[in-house]
Amino acid sequence: MGTIKKIRKPKPWKHSQPLTKSQLMQMRDEFWDTAPHYGGRKEIWDALRAAAEADLNLARAIVDSAGVIIQNPDLTICYDERGAKYELPKYVLSEPTNLIQDN
Q1: Alpha-carbon span 25 to 82, nearest angstrom
Q2: 58: which of 54, 74, 78, 98 fits an S-S bond (Cβ 3.0–4.6 Å)?
Q3: What is the pLDDT of residues 49-75, one digit of tens each?
Q4: Can you tell me the distance from the alpha carbon of 21 to that of 64, in angstroms, rounded to the nearest whole number?
């Protein structure tokens, strides 16, 4: 498994229904609150969250310093040094193309 040096945002994607920014933020918060329960180490989940919320250059530095092994350049699949798998949904990494204004 080679390491990928470039991190990029996921390709444009569409949610099953149009979402508002506040709905998207709520989905993200729920994911990050429950993510450590899927296994893996809390500090890796924390680093992935910081990387997901950072610009791409900072994200690279965060995952490198945490020892995260990136399988997909958009961070949807990563591993830690012990081989635990971390899967991130696209909605925590970028906004859908069908994002709508909050009322």
Answers
A1: 30
A2: 54
A3: 999 999 999 999 999 999 999 999 999
A4: 30
1 — pLDDT class (breaks 50, 70, 90): very low
Residue 41 confidence (pLDDT) above 50: yes
User: CATH number for the 19-97 domain, one of 3.40.630.10, 3.40.50.2300, 3.30.830.10, 1.20.225.20?
Assistant: 1.20.225.20
Q: Would you say 100 and 20 are in contact if contact means Cβ atoms under 8 Å apart?
A: yes
Q: Go through the chain and tell me how many residues it has.
A: 103
Q: Which residue has the tokens 């994200």?
A: 59
Write out the two tokens for 99.
Answer: 């994002």
- In the block, which residue shows the tokens 């099953």? 16
Q: What is the average pLDDT score of the chain?
A: 93
